[in-house]
Amino acid sequence: MWLDHHLYSLVASLGRLLRKPWAALLTIGVMAVALALPLGLWAALSNIERFAGDVQRSRQISVFLKPQIEVERARALAEQLRARPDVGAVDVRTPEQGLAELREKSGLAEALAAVENNPLPSLLVVTPKGDELALAQSLEQLGEADVVQHDAGWRQRLDGWLRFGTRLAWVLAAMLGLGALLVVGNTVRLDIQSRREEIGVLQQLGATDGFIRRPFLYLGACYGLAAGAVALALLTAADHSLREPLGALAQSYGSRFALRGFDPLQALGILAGAAALGWLGAGVVTGHYLRQTRGGQD
C-alpha cells in the first residue's frame, strides 16, 4: 500500500501539472532561468579553466642571447641547461631560423631582404619542469643572456579572475537557488490553499502528515525536474549557437579549442539537484502548513 500510494501521489502530481499548463509553464520557466544562470557561468568557467590549463602547459621562457654569442656556443649552453633538473627541454633558434620565421609571419619579406646583415641573435626556448619563476630568475643571471622574456603575470591575473568567477558562481547559485526554492514553495502553497478542505477531512480521518505531504512533495519534485530539463535545453542551445563562431575564432589563432558542454553524468546530477530543490521547497511549505493546522486542532 505504501508503494501504491507513492505511485498514486506521483501520477496525481503530474495530473495537477497538466490540468494547469500555463501556470505550470510559468513556474517551470522562472525556475529554469534561475537554474540556467549559475549553471551557464559554471560551464563558462570550466571552459576557461580548460583553456587556461592548455596555455599554462606552454610555459616557455625565451632567452635572447647577446649578439656576439656564436651559434656553437648557444648549442653548448643549451646542452648545459638540459642537464638541469628544473629544465624540461631547450630548443635552439639560430639567427637564420629567426629571420626566416620573421619573413614568413610578419609580411615584411621585401623589407627584410634589403637587410645585408642579420640583426637577430640566437634564441633559446626553455620549457620549465618545475618553478618557472625561479628558473626565469636563474636564467637572467647567465652571462650569455641579453634578454629573458617570461610573461607569467597575465597567467597569475587570469588565475585570480578564475577564482573570483568561481566564488561568484557559488554566490549566484545560492541566491538563485533560494529564489527557485521560494517559487516552488509559493506554487505549492497556493495548491495547498485550494485543497484545504480535502486536507482537513484527511486529518479528521487520521491521516498522517507523511500521507498528506507526499503528493505535494512529488509536485515540487516534478517542478524541479522539469525546470532542470528546460535549463539544460537552454544551455545546450546556447552552446550550439556559440560553438561555431568560437571555433572559427580559435582556428584563426591556430588553436583547436572548442566549447565543451555538460557530459551525461553532469546532466543527471543537475536534474537530480533540481528535483531535490523542488522537493525541499515543497517539503518546507507543506511541513509549515501541517504544523499550523495540527496546532490549531490541539
What gyration radius follows from the Cα positions, in whole Å?
A: 32 Å
Largest sheet: 4 strands, antiparallel
**Oligomerization category of the chains in this entry:** single chain
Mean pLDDT: 78
Number of strands: 4
Q: Report the uncertain regions.
A: none
Number of domains: 2
What coarse outline follows from CA principal-axis ratios? rod-shaped
Strand content: 5-15%
Compute the separation of the termini in Å: 29 Å
* Percentage of residues in helical conformation: over 70%
Category from helices, strands and their pairing? alpha+beta
Query: What is the number of helical segments per DSSP (H or I, 4+ residues)?
Result: 10
Order of helices and strands: HHEHEHHEHEHHHH
- As laid out across the biggest beta sheet, the strand order is 2-3-1-4
Organism: Lysobacter enzymogenes
InterPro entries: ABC3_permease_C, FtsX, FtsX_ECD, FtsX_proteobact-type
Keywords: Cell cycle, Cell division, Cell inner membrane, Cell membrane, Membrane, Transmembrane, Transmembrane helix
Family: Belongs to the ABC-4 integral membrane protein family. FtsX subfamily.
Describe this entry's structure for a reader.
The protein has helices spanning 2-19, 21-56, 71-82, 95-106, 109-113, 132-139, 153-194, 196-204, 209-252, 264-297; strands at residues 61-65, 87-93, 123-128, 145-149. It has 298 residues and is α+β, with helices and mostly antiparallel strands. It has 2 domains: 2-56 and 155-297, no CATH class; 61-151, Alpha-Beta Plaits. The chain has a 4-stranded antiparallel β-sheet with strand order 2-3-1-4. It is rod-shaped.
